[in-house]
Amino acid sequence: MAVTLTYPGVYVQEVPSGNRTITGVATAVTAFVGSALRGPVHRPVPISSYAQFERQFGGLWRNSGLGYAVQDYYLNGGNLAVIVRLPGGAEDEEAGAAPARMDAGGLTLEAATRGAWGDLLEVDVAHATAGPEAEAVAERQGVAVDALFHLTVREGPRAEPRQQESHLNLTVVDGPRQVDDVLRISDLVVTVPGGLPGTRPAPGTYTVRSAGSTGRDTGKLVFADYVPPSAGQPAEEKVGIDALRDADLFTILCLPPGDPGGDLPDEVWAHALALCAEERAFLLVDPPADESRTTIRTWLEGRGLTSRGRNGGIYFPRLRRADPLRDNAVRPFVPSGAVAGVMARTDSARGVWKAPAGTEAGITGATGLAVTLTDGENGDLNPFGINCLRTFRTVGTVVWGARTLRGADLVADEYKYVPVRRLALFLEETLWRNLHWVVFEPNDEPLWAQIRASIGAFLQDLFRQGAFQGSTPRDAYFVRCDAETTTQYDIDRGIVNIVVGFAPLKPAEFVVVSIQQKTATAS
């Protein structure tokens, strides 16, 4: 801001430096889409721990692989995640219907989300005891003492430890503790679906089964649950996998099957790959349960995934791990959750440019693999872009491959390797989010210089961390934004062109050791 000069003397003003700091986005925010015991549907919910997943979505569930995949993710180093619960019911109209509902002494309550878990809800209603304390509370709220009541909500089977939450001094009349407002901002176990009664509810214990409509668990997930037909749907409604478009950020996508030991509908993978290409994310493809080392290649080629698979990778075979819901019986599970955790752990320790594979990429929680591969069998799959999981005697079960779905030797794609592709996606997302300040700025050399300085400083920091190949910055990266990239014709159309190049580090996939015999000679 210009200073008005009115008197003789010294004037001081602050001048902005013009520096725009670029901050890298998170590289391992994993999205999980599938069915769960409870929780909001068709809405991306961010979580940061498995305990949070248990509170909001019910934890492990026999009828879904989602909980197992999320648990594997956090066991292997996962941090941030986004959960989208699918209600199911595309084949069964009654499945995933309205939440369970009860009449609690005149007050209608409803389970916060769909599912049979709501059938086990139990509510205690008690009236506030008359006395000085109750009168003081009523006076602060501006209501009568006989308007106050207490609500205790319990969930889960009676034979097991039950979660419980209590809400004291509620009212059904206007006030700071009006019951519908209080329940709306609580842990969302129950809600008030309609209007409030004229008087407080009668005291007593109420259950869904004794006074209400029961809920139902989700049906088997089919293709239409993941990718609903667009006909008749409002344009702003995003359901199924497309609900992730409302997520602020996700960089890895996992699609655990509806049945822990089952498969995802084959047609879903192509749609998921297209979504990842649009959202700059990386898809982890799980192998079908019945595919063997001799058929997995045919399955992959038959789905057309290799032709558009820069943003995805497949990991074979499935993991074997203990199932806590089946007396710790060892069963096969999809590996995507564990692999996503390994990616998050590797990103945190080494950076997104380090391949999430090798002896450091051990899988925690796995007791073995559904198929044991030899070096020769691994060698048959690796040239076709199929990443293998291996078990070695000294290091246990590890990720032993780092190729994208376009990683077949015959394809010769420039994004053959997972870390190269994920680094490119990281750079794209970071620059997209950090260059919005450029919009509507004067399109001339001062702006171009600022852009070069900001992006150059960001890439230089990555270079110092070892993200690029090359011994000097000139060898490692370049940023171009000048009169050559942005011509007068571009300026007239309001366009500024920025060209960023980088030399990626590629993993040492094959280590060749040559041994030569040295003949001793006389001195």
TrEMBL record:
Residues 414-517 form the Tail sheath protein C-terminal domain. Residues 322-405 form the Tail sheath protein subtilisin-like domain. Belongs to the myoviridae tail sheath protein family. This is Phage tail sheath subtilisin-like domain-containing protein. It comes from Blastococcus carthaginiensis. The lineage of its organism: Bacteria, Bacillati, Actinomycetota, Actinomycetes, Geodermatophilales.
